Amino acid sequence: MATKVDVAPGAHPGQTISAGEEKFERIRKTVGFFLAPALFLLFYYMPIAGLSPAAHNLAAIFVFTVTLWITEAVPIPIAAILGPILTVIFGVTTAKEAFAAFADPTIMLFLGGFILAEAMAVQGLDRRFALGILSLSAVKGNAYRILFAFGAIITFLSMWLSNTATAAMMYPIGLGVLGAIANVKAEDAGKSKFGTGMMLMVAYTASIGGIGTPIGSPPNLIGLASMEKILKVKIPFVQWMEVTVPIMIIMFIFLYFYISRTSPPPAKDASGSNDYISEQKKAMGSWTRGQINALLAFLVAVALWVYPGILAIIEGTKGPNYVHFASTFPESVVALLAASLLFVLPTNWKKREFTITAKQALNIDWGTLLLFGGGIALGDLMFKTGLAKAVGNGLVSLTGADSLISITALAIFISVLLTETTSNTAAATMVVPIVIAIATQAQVSPIPPALGATLAASMAFMLPVSTPPNAIVYGSGLVPVTKMIKTGFWLDFFAYFIILIGVLTLPKLVGLM
User: Fold this and answer.
1) CA separation for the pair 174, 151 (Å, rounded)
2) Beta bridge partners of 270
3) Alpha-carbon distance 231 to 505, whole Å?
4) Which terminus, N or C, of the chain has the lesser number of Cβ atoms within 10 Å?
5) CB 169 within 8 A of CB 126
6) Which CA distances in Å does 371 have to 219, 225, 318, 417?
7) At 118, which helix (H) or strand (E)?
8) How far apart are CA 349 and CA 188, in angstroms?
9) Other C-beta atoms within 10 Å of 259: how many?
10) Following DSSP, what letter does each residue of 252-292 receive, concatenated?
């Protein structure tokens, strides 16, 4: 699942930052610590025509929260909690309404997904899958095929697991393969083009894969929740994948060809990596009971998520079987049901040991869940108070964007720009409700702009601090920051246009418009 660990950049695993970057981060946080309350007071006391008192107060709270998100003056999840707290204190809403978002079904969907991902990591199922693919006769022995398979594995895993966990797991495997192929070491930073390319493949595919499923990345569920709450449009699991998987595949193919041309291997022959991969696979031993149980729970979840889509194809979304199944097994219930299986499927019945323990389950990324809840709360209130409509009208007047294409293009641009400097969830929270309001005001379909902003929030490729996978591979010493910026720029550039074309065409083809 391509989710950001929304903590200070200096806390990202594997990251090594220079003294200059450390100084910049300290200045950024210090500025934000004082700028956020100053902007709050400015907006709170500044007359803003056309806003109700609740919307006016919410505007001040929103600017305060966004400033904390961008500068990371406090941990981003804490800033997300402060937002709903302040909405209660300043009379925007009630405590019951403000905190209801933290128990939203989409939160439960992510909670179940996180526990499933944690069990797969604890049991080593993800690593077994990766090594199994790399050891296939169609892959091993050829550096180009290894690069392609390596990226494809990460893309697939990140559809279901955290982008940070996926990158952290595949990063040492990638280093091992590099060492076997070309004896690449960290002290040779920047000297090995293929080493740089392999590391960038780890970081970028971990983010690209996240758009493939609703649970792949927090922005996906932010977008889905916003469309369901504001537009009363529910996008089923399979229908989401019908729109996003083609975009994901095209992004991956572009990335592979770009890296294989700009960071080619020293030689096509990579037979030197065969022994390393075989040794790693052998060290894992045979399938364990825990791995089988984790795979079973995962397959149950996927089957129940996909089945309504199959029913929709057969009888339509108004068919009796589809309506019954969708209401009985919504995605959130399926996620928690599958996660619950992990606590009852035994690995050693005599010792009463099960696939995952409560202590292990508590290791999931609670910060992202808090950020997600705060984002839903603020996004919902922006519409209820009329703030989103007012901001939307202002942006239409400022930019002149009043057509479906121009609004969607603007939504994607803003989202890409924001996600390079702040949390992907925060970026989606800021942009999605506003672009829905802009589209509604312009009387065009809000679905393409909302989808565009949602998907673009995962396109953080240019900076080590843009997303944890970038930070992890930057810490390897094999990725010069200039190379990351250059490659990330072209990937952002391509992503902008492929997302724009995709969200303007694919929703029509799958019946969303």
Assistant:
1) 10
2) 141
3) 20
4) C
5) yes
6) 11, 14, 34, 20
7) helix 105-123
8) 50
9) 25
10) HHHHHHHHHHHS--S-SEETHHHHHHHHHHHHH-SPPHHHH
- What percent of the residues of the chain are helix, what percent strand, and what percent coil, each to the nearest 5? 75, 0, 25
Instruction: Show the CA angle centred on residue 5, arms to residues 229 and 353, nearest 5°.
Output: 95
Q: How far is CA 26 from CA 20, 78, 495, in A?
A: 10, 18, 31
Helices vs strands, H then E, count in the chain: 23, 4
pLDDT tens-digit map of 315-348: 877 888 888 888 899 888 998 999 999 999 999 9
- Distance CA(42)–CA(440), nearest Å, equals 29
Amino acid 18: pLDDT: 58
DSSP code of residue 73: S
- Which ranges of 400-511 would DSSP assign to H, the alpha helix? 404-419, 424-441, 447-456, 468-474, 481-509
DSSP state of 356: S
For residues 37 and 176, what is the distance between their CA atoms, to the nearest angstrom?
A: 48
Neighbours of 193 (CB within 10 A): 16
In sequence order, what are the residues at sequence separation of 6 or more whose Cβ sits closer than 8 angstroms to the Cβ of residue 354?
342, 343, 344, 345, 346, 347
Task: Specify the pLDDT at position 187.
Answer: 45
The label of the residue with tokens 């895993």 reads: 157
Count Cβ atoms below 10 Å from residue 100 Cβ, excluding itself: 16
For residue 156, what are its two tokens? 């697939």
- Whole-Å CA distances, 443 to 385, 402, 436, 440, 502: 20, 9, 10, 5, 21
Q: What 8-state DSSP symbol labels residue 124?
A: T
Number of Cβ atoms within 10 Å of the Cβ of 267: 12
Q: Residue 22: pLDDT above 80?
A: no
